[in-house]
Specification:
heterotrimer; A alpha+beta; B mainly alpha; C mainly alpha; B: mainly alpha; C: mainly alpha; MetI-like fold; 12 helices
Chain lengths: 360, 293, 267
């Protein structure tokens, strides 16, 4: 257990009658990049604040490097934290900001200077030492905040939606960079975000939270391909989610019926058995629009009418009505937009393996 | 990952507030208690003492209510403060409106002009008004030289002089009160009314004035209370002929050495202030509710 | 119609601004005029009234007023910062009631505070405190609420995340106060102190009860003199003290940089 950096044991937080975090258990090994992902109000920020020590859990225990942190103030936890609004000290230069943590520990000046230089180099901010935060761009402020957090070499770095104030291009570039920095330093990163793309792009492990509990924790690709609940399926990526009922079909197989309609879909035999499947999830990119030339090998062919199209540049979002109340989203290449006009009848095909059953 | 069962009890809330947090309050509290709360208490105690025997007596309160000169002073105070409140608010409004809406570089100049006199102190301004308004002052000299009047007009040492001087003293506060209120009105509302065909006058009457009523009330309020409690301006510009509560209190202390009477007058002035502030505050909250701001 | 209204608006604005500036201009002109008749022709102007100020009659009260104002602004700044810290930073329980108590002197007219203090000092047998000590105490009561309010406002505006950032970087409470909180609220503290200085230096309604012979502040000396004469030397005194106040504001600004706060930026 020595390689566990952070451990949450039955951690609970209540404000009055309001249960914000409900008995969370989580162990984060050293050097892992973990994302706490969820919509606002899911308890992820509260969890982060409890790890940092700004809030004390109502129940349970938080251990950092095996030590119970109850009653340990934030300044004694040796943790780094990057704030959403960066929280740079406006009266200090970049170098003073980055060196602040070491200065507070009484580190000799020469050593501070050396560490500041290294930290700034690792975030590519050389030459800006004498600037004040006001004189920096958003991206530079973000890097300064990161350098300040890593300069004292904490064992764990917490990041609270650090990229949410940057514009899209910069945000995508920073994702790559953050991941590189994390790997170089070998530091444990706990990254709080509501942006699923961000979490997928960087994390070794994604912890999806909702309503104060952990809904699923897994590798990013597993979270995407094998969501366990309709909440996860809906929150991570786009998906068609239908309430369904299971029924036996020919050849000892099973098929599902979308509730409130007569649409039946065959499902793969190797589908993990979900005894009480209530929902199914189909990713839009798994919906094949086959036009009118349906071939025999196509499974689960449905006829429908295009109701709405949205051009996303490379791709086209289609809403296809296959029954009175059933709408299926599909994602196709834009090059086909000529054939796919609103009002056109189309046939779609869904591979049985693309249909995932969900218990809740 | 095995989860180790924890037997440690829930941690106590570390953020619980301890009495140590109150320690920084001791010095300011001590000063305010000793030199504010205790003196006010003693003043109230003195007010119910007989001026000569120091026995318990309501004589000073009785005298306040029956002495025609004192009652006249009270009404003079109220009349003066009411006039100042109206003059200040009427004059502050255009300035505040300009400051709230202008984007020109004159805005900074006007702002400085409006606020700067406050740095000069009451003496300088009162002195200025005296040399402008007195019998052989600036205005009278000019009027006589121009032949409009043959003998000097009584401009100082009366109600007129005091109202002019106090209006000058209080005006910056009226401007600030109205400025806050007008800045809170979305300029687009005025534009919307204009687009809908309202003339400038109807915009003022139907949009601007109704929406700035809270500001007008707070300007009236602050002007009234500042004027009623002012001492130096009435003392210098009103002179012996125009006495208000504040100057009468000073006389009771310094000339008549009648502390109980001074205390009673001070308490009446204080109660008047608090009543006006309270009533005005009620009106303001009601207006804010009504206008939804 | 619209044109008439806007014309009226500009004329009234100019007249009001003239009303505001007129007494100040008149006093400046009077201080430079050779006789008690005010003249606006610069050719006749003289500095003799200013020269007349260099006499103990005016210098002593000036020094006393300046001394009192400096002490009052320092004490009010420190006491106000302590109160504001407990209320706005520590957020101690009951902070609203405590703030109301700290601000309560504002609700009481100065002349009433003056009566109360003079009755207190006299009947508590503290005659010895009349004069300078009493003036200082009374001025502190007067200015402390302003200082406390201004400093509390700047603490409320202080981004609490900066405090948390310093904390997670290992700064103890004292280190956070010294390296983060104080430098960032310094403009608020200095504007509170400047305010206290100006109020104390110009004060009449409290001082008028507390001065004693030989310990008379400048404004009281001036109004006493005004009872007898409107000599242009008074104009010179007033202009000189206004210049002194402006210089002090400039100095405080240099030290505390509070105009940066007004313009919404630091550094």
């Amino acid at each position: 257990m020595n390689d566990i950096d952070i451990e949450l044991i039955c951690v609970r937080k209540t404000y009055g009658n309001n249960l914000v975090v409900n008995d969370i258990n989580l162990a984060i090994p050293k050097g892992e990049f973990v994302s706490l992902l969820g919509p606002s109000g899911c308890g992820k920020t509260t969890t982060l604040n409890m790890i940092a020590g700004f809030q004390e859990p109502t129940g349970g225990e938080i251990r950092i490097r095996g030590r119970n942190q109850a009653g340990v103030p934030p300044e004694k936890r040796n943790i780094g934290l990057v704030f959403q609004n960066y929280a740079l000290f406006p009266h200090m230069t970049v170098a003073e900001n980055v060196g602040f943590g070491l200065k507070m520990k009484g580190t000799p000046r020469a050593e501070i200077e050396q560490t500041v230089r290294t930290a700034l180099k690792s975030v590519h901010l050389e030459g800006l030492e004498a600037r004040y935060p006001k004189e920096l761009s958003g991206g530079q402020q973000q890097r300064t905040a990161l350098a300040r957090a890593i300069a004292p070499r904490p064992s764990v770095l917490l990041l609270d939606e650090p990229l949410s104030n940057l514009d899209l291009k910069l945000r995508e570039a920073m994702r790559v960079e953050l991941k590189e920095i994390q790997q170089q330093l070998g530091m444990t990163f706990v990254y709080v975000t509501h942006d699923q793309e961000e979490a997928m792009a960087m994390s070794d492990r994604v912890v999806v939270m909702s309503g104060g509990v952990i809904t699923q924790e897994d590798k990013p690709e597993h979270i995407y391909n094998a969501p366990r609940t309709s909440f996860v399926a809906d929150f991570i990526g786009k998906s068609n989610i239908f309430a369904v009922s299971l029924r036996p079909a020919a050849d000892d197989r099973q098929e599902i019926v979308i509730n409130g309609s007569s649409i039946a879909l065959a499902i793969a035999a190797d589908q993990p058995k979900v005894a009480t499947a209530k929902f199914c999830c189909i990713r839009p990119e798994d919906v094949r629009v086959v036009g009118n030339d349906v071939s025999a090998k196509d499974a689960n062919v449905l006829d429908g009418t295009i109701c709405k199209t949205v051009n996303l540049g490379a791709h086209l979002d289609l809403w296809i009505a296959v029954d009175r109340d059933i709408m299926i989203k599909a994602l196709v290449r834009s090059s086909r937009s000529n054939q796919l006009k609103v009002g056109n009848p189309v046939s779609i095909s869904i591979a049985p393996a693309a249909i995932r059953l969900l218990a809740e | 990952m095995t989860i180790v069962a924890t037997d440690s009890p829930a941690a106590p809330a570390r953020r619980a507030f301890t009495l140590r947090g109150y320690v920084p309050l001791f010095p300011p509290f001590a000063v305010l208690l000793l030199f504010f709360a205790v003196p006010i208490g003693m003043m109230i105690g003195i007010s119910v003492q007989d001026p000569k025997t120091s026995q318990f007596s309501m004589a000073s309160y009785q005298r306040f209510l029956t002495d025609g000169l004192i009652i006249a002073g009270l009404f003079r105070t109220i009349l003066m403060s009411g006039l100042v409140a109206i003059c200040v608010t009427v004059m502050a409004y255009p300035v505040a409106y300009f400051l709230a809406r202008s984007t020109s570089r004159w805005r900074a100049v006007v702002f400085a002009l409006a606020i700067a006199p406050e740095l000069a102190g009451v003496v300088l301004r009162t002195y200025g008004w005296l040399i402008i308004l007195e019998d052989r002052g600036f205005v009278n000299d000019a009027l006589i030289w121009l032949g409009f009047v043959s003998s000097p007009l009584p401009l100082a040492k009366n109600l007129f002089g005091v109202v002019v001087g106090l209006t000058h003293v209080v005006l910056p506060f009226g401007i600030l009160a109205l400025l806050t209120s007008i800045q809170g009105i979305d300029p687009n509302i005025e534009k919307a009314a204009q687009i809908l065909g309202a003339s400038r006058l109807s915009v003022i009457r139907h949009i601007l004035l109704p929406l700035s009523i809270p500001g007008i009330v707070s300007s009236l309020l602050i002007s009234f209370t500042m004027a009623a409690s002012a001492y130096a301006t009435p003392a210098l510009l009103g002179g012996a002929r125009f006495k208000v509560l504040a100057t009468m209190i000073f006389e009771q202390i310094m000339f008549y050495i009648n502390w109980p009477m001074a205390a009673v007058m001070a308490i009446v002035l204080l109660v008047l202030m608090l009543a006006i502030t309270f009533a005005g505050g009620r009106v303001e909250t009601r207006l804010h509710k009504k206008l939804n701001i | 119609m619209n044109r008439l209204l806007s014309g009226l608006f500009w004329i009234s604005l100019c007249l009001i601004l003239a009303f505001i500036t007129l007494p100040l201009l008149v006093v400046v002109a009077a201080s430079l005029s050779p006789s008690s008749t005010v003249t606006f022709s610069p050719a006749d102007w003289t500095m003799k009234w200013y020269a007349a100020l260099w006499a103990s009659k005016w210098l002593d009260p000036f020094i006393l007023s300046a001394k009192i104002a400096v002490i009052v602004s320092l004490v009010s700044g420190v006491l106000g910062a302590l109160g504001a810290y407990a209320i706005a930073y520590e957020k101690c329980p009951g902070s609203e009631a405590i703030m109301a108590f700290l601000l309560s002197p504002l609700a009481v007219p100065q002349i009433v505070k003056g009566v109360a203090i003079v009755i207190f000092l006299s009947s508590a047998g503290l005659y010895a405190l009349l004069g300078t000590p009493g003036l200082i105490a009374a001025h502190i009561v007067l200015t402390l609420p302003f200082a406390a309010r201004m400093i509390a406002t700047s603490i409320y505006n202080f981004d609490k995340n900066l405090d948390r950032a310093a904390q997670i970087l290992g700064a103890s409470k004292w280190q956070r106060i010294r390296h983060v909180l104080l430098p960032l609220i310094k403009p608020g503290v200095f504007s509170g102190m400047t305010f206290a200085f100006i109020i104390s230096f110009n004060n009449i309604p409290l001082s008028v009860f507390l001065v004693r012979p030989g310990q008379t502040t400048l404004p009281i000396t001036v109004i006493n003199y005004m009872e007898y004469s409107l000599d242009p030397v008074l104009a010179a005194v007033n202009v000189a003290s206004l210049i002194f106040i402006l210089a002090t504001i400039f100095l405080f600004e240099k030290l505390g940089g509070f105009s940066a706060q007004i313009h919404g930026g630091s550094k």
